[in-house]
Specification:
This protein is α/β, with parallel strands linked by helices and 558 residues long. The chain folds into 2 domains: 5-279, 3-Layer(aba) Sandwich (Rossmann fold), CATH 3.40.50.300; 287-421 and 469-484 and 493-543, Rossmann fold (3-Layer(aba) Sandwich). The chain has a 9-stranded mixed beta sheet with strand order 13-12-14-15-23-22-21-18-19, with helices on both faces. A 7-stranded parallel beta sheet has the order 5-2-6-1-7-10-11, sandwiched between helices. It has a 3-stranded mixed beta sheet with strand order 16-17-20, with helices on one face. The termini are far apart. The protein binds glutamine (GLN). The site of glutamine has 10 residues, from strand 19. Glutamine binds at residues 358-360, 386-387, 410, 466-469.
Length: 558
Amino acid sequence: MSAKYVFVTGGVVSSLGKGLAAASIGCLLESRGLRVNMMKFDPYLNVDPGTMSPFQHGEVFVTDDGAETDLDLGHYERFTHAPLSRDNNLTTGRIYEQIILKERRGDYLGKTVQVIPHVTNEIKNAMRKVSANGADVTIIEIGGTVGDIESLPFLEAIRQMRQELGRENTVFIHLTLVPWIAAAQELKTKPTQHSVKELLSIGIQADILMCRSDRPLGIEMKKKIAAFCNVEEKAVIGALTVPSIYEVPLGFALEGVDSLILKYLHMEAPEANLTEWKALVDRCYHPKDTVHIGIVGKYVEYEDSYKSLKEALTHGAVSQNLKLKVTWIEAEGLESKFPEDRSYESQLEGFDGILVPGGFGKRGIEGMLNAIRYAREKQVPYFGICLGMQTACIEIARNVCGLKDANSSEFNPASPHRIIYKLRELLGVEEMGGTMRLGAWACVLQEGSLAAKAYGGATEISERHRHRYEFNREYEALLTGAGLSLTGTTPDATYVEIVELPGHPFFLGCQFHPEFKSKPLEPHPLFREFIIASYKNRLARLASESSETPSLTSTMSS
Ligand code: GLN
């Protein structure tokens, strides 16, 4: 059987949720027993998003093989079982890098190297490589919006793919916006018409239109769009804004997207089994209670910077039938004005759990240390991820072991107590360039630890990394003497991966990023356990508050 492709493009405006739509299509096809693979092309010139600011580009999603990729790959992993690696996310920068390398090597034998055919061939080869991975259907998302200059080579490549493979092996899905115009009290189809026309002008006739709108598209509206945009009536899909993203695949199923794709691709598959997704959405919409987590970080104004983190917390909460409430706290705002200033405490009261996520650079560190001190002293569940583990170790070194200058060499290279450092720093080796520890690393768990229990008694796990600095084992004796347990290390014991404070209801820091491996239907064990502990803390706090209230009333009535 020839390889089958679904191409997803976007029109009208960006931020319509193309990645989520592509992931939901993948989810739906998997629910029909098909194996899917997913891929995204990003038209910008950066070679990968690894060096881009989280404020501009959102989170950098890391795959097992250590690729730093676009956050849409996070949606793909959470919604499907597609095996993702560095081959599944390519930018214009990466494509050109490959071509220029070949050109310098003389691979083009003196020919003029051009966008067509050389760039488009490189793009098509990348698609074929991913689809050769044993998938029944490969879903390919083209980043950007139709009409962007940068997207053109990618759109030309998918046009050629249809020419080469035929209609029965390729489907073009175009995501557009159908805005509600308050003055006219109407949904408007014109932007969609223009976008479809723009696509047609470069040789691509959309097969399926996914129309994002805040209100349901009526049958008349669908008829109109179908007539003007030259698609079947049932190929006009309403992509209604819904409260939970996990409902998106279910909405698409109701609109018959899966059957339509299968019809266009001349494929047959069993009926969809979406039982687990339905149960998940049901739990999301009928929570028994709320759990409130305070996240103390530095990129808090832009939620996309912590996309996977928010998702993983939600997965943990939904698994316990709880609604997740998150308060984002700017770490800089928790800094002390003078040595014993504890005024930050008022900002930390009332959270069921506190979390310090990953981050780079020294801004806000002192505020994170205060938040960790608060959680440690007040017995509030604390979860530290990557930077949040490093700062937890520094906090204990400073406030329990009395090393006032304890720090990471990232924030103060001159610190006499570099609790966190670059392993090779001590050897005097100056590292330059790509020095991050990236991707999957094995971690051995200490028997009986909180981590080992969370992972269901596993002795070895694998998690993903993205950082430069490490725990300095020269301070191990001091910190363990103060009560810290090192409960996870790499199998060769070089790197410390997990630290815990036994005796505290939940105090755990991990050097890796567990959020990258959490899925709605497979919540990550550490997030699940953190939520469980936080909810326990909530119930205990509420119980103690209500036991205080009657005594007050009894005093009044007596
Ligand atoms: N800045 C720290 C390091 O590079 C932590 C990185 C992170 O949290 N991802 O080691």
